[in-house]
Amino acid sequence: MSPVEWGGEVPERVVAATEPSGWPSRLAGYWKVLLGALSTLGVGGVFAWLQSAGVTHLPPWATAGVTALVTIVLLLFGPSNKA
Prior knowledge:
Layout lengths: L11 H7 L4 H30 L7 H18 L6
């Protein structure tokens, strides 16, 4: 039952809590920054970063997955060649 149905007033904090927070657009912005960083590093840079973080061995499927992900990001977010 809402406060309007029982005749009460809606407190200010309830109104503020129902307003959109904008977190989806903020998260999308961070995602774009992360993908941009991955495309700047490249495949070798990502593996060097993982190695500096202490990763000494990856299973073959993880290596292929990282390579595929970074390559796709490079293709999508890299500079486009327009003739």
